[in-house]
What does this fold into?
Amino acid sequence: MTQSAFQTSAGASRNSVDFTENYRNLRKMIQALKKENGQLVGKEIFGDEEEQPALTKSDMQRLFKTLRRIENQYEKCCNPPIPEALEKSIRTKGSDEWLPWELEAIEKMDTWRSELEERKKKATKMLQQAMEKIKARRRR
It folds into this structure.
């Protein structure tokens, strides 16, 4: 019933070799299943969302061109006409206490904010149109 140390160590090394070999085989099988079923599992989890193909070099150039155009057009308008601290100090006073130049400064700020909002909407629309054009070209 007793085993020699040699027999015990030989059995242990045989088991460790079997374990390592089994581990490698199991790992290969899992990776193969992931490759085969990865998209199916993703669809089950996230729904039937179609995979977006990578943009081509020309698509990226068109997109960057649009982004540069948006950036150049709206870079100037992003700076407020008066400093923020000055606006805050004016607004802390009641509007009936404003001096004529303070009233003018606040009117400029309000006009600037409304124009900035319009330009943001226009920039968003430009970007959406560019993306739609790129997607339409990809479908062809």
